[in-house]
Amino acid sequence: MPTRSRMARLLMIGLTASALAACAGTPTRESTGEYIDGTLITSKVKAKFVESEDVSAAAVNVETFKGVVQLSGFAHSESERRKAEQLAAAIAGVKQVKNDIRLR
Q1: Is 51 within the bounds of a domain?
Q2: Residue 33 structural domain
């Protein structure tokens, strides 16, 4: 019986370690926590765009990966493009903003 008990414990330890490793991030994949953080950051950036009269929220797409916010879409002017970048950079948790917004 002690052997079965040890084997069961080892199996549980192995399964627990595997489950924890599956939640870890890699350079090309976010961890579960990073994914949730990124989703929250994206939502906050989009909300700021909706509140702003200077940025068309419908014309700008927002994606977040590991704290880096990527903006894409279209702006009517360079000042709208810059304002979108400033609003995104001001959100807590944003490490960098990549501004790929194009002018119409």
Answers
A1: yes
A2: 26-103
Pairwise CA distance, residues 71 & 38, whole Å: 13
Q: Would you say residue 44 lies in a domain?
A: yes
Question: Of the candidates 91, 99, 103, 100, which has an alpha carbon nearest to the alpha carbon of residue 38?
Answer: 91
Span 51-81, pLDDT tens digits? 999 999 999 999 999 999 999 999 999 999 9
Its pTM stands at: 0.76
Give 21's pLDDT tier (boundaries 50, 70, 90).
low
- Indicate whether 16 belongs to any domain: no
d(CA 15, CA 52): 48
- Tokens for 63, please give them: 């994606």
Sign for the pseudo-dihedral over CA of 46, 47, 52, 53 = positive
Q: Is 69 left (phi over 0), alpha (psi -120 to 50) or beta?
A: beta
How many domains is the chain partitioned into structurally? Answer: 1
